[in-house]
């Protein structure tokens, strides 16, 4: 079964931390770029970060310096460490695999989306 399964979301206060995980199964994972996206209530889907196969990362300006993306290829798992969380980080967070070995920031170039994990940050 081809799927990405996100976990680790929850409710935290402003300034808190959460670590999201994304377990990939049923598809080739290692050589492809993996991305994190989020969608707040009533907002458009937004790119958050990506990690390529060597482990190089890039982040949206809104999370740069606070979020850290990583991957464990042996476990087919992607991570997103989120620190110094703000209320505006409240959203459903998704992971997906790029259709290419390169790392686009547009969601249209990603596939194998998970169901998401909810992150809620209160002030």
Explain how this protein is built.
There is one protein chain. The protein is mainly beta and 123 residues long. It contains no helices and eleven strands.
List its traits.
123 residues, mainly beta, seven-stranded mixed sheet, four-stranded antiparallel sheet, 11 strands, 0% helix, globular
Briefly say what this structure is.
With 123 residues, the chain is mostly beta strands. It contains no helices and eleven strands.
Report the β-strand fraction as a percent range. Answer: over 45%
Classification by helices and strands: mainly beta
End-to-end distance, in Å?
39 Å
Element-by-element helix/strand order = EEEEEEEEEEE
Shape: globular
Number of strands: 11
Tell me the layout of helices and strands.
Elements: E1 3-7, E2 10-13, E3 18-25, E4 34-39, E5 46-51, E6 57-59, E7 67-72, E8 77-82, E9 91-98, E10 110-111, E11 117-122
Parallel strand pairs: 2-11
Antiparallel strand pairs: 1-3, 3-8, 4-5, 4-9, 5-6, 7-8, 9-10, 9-11
């Amino acid at each position: 079964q081809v799927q990405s399964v996100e976990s680790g979301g929850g409710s935290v206060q402003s300034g808190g931390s959460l670590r999201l995980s994304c377990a990939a199964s049923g598809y080739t994972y290692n050589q492809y770029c993996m991305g994190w996206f989020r969608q707040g209530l009533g907002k458009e889907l937004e790119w958050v970060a990506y990690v390529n196969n060597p482990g190089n990362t890039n982040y949206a300006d809104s999370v740069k310096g606070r979020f850290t993306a990583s991957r464990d290829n042996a476990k087919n798992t992607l991570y997103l460490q989120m620190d110094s969380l703000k209320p505006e980080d409240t959203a459903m967070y998704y992971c997906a695999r790029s259709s290419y070995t390169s790392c686009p920031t547009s969601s249209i170039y990603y596939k194998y989306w998970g169901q998401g994990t909810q992150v809620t940050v209160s002030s």
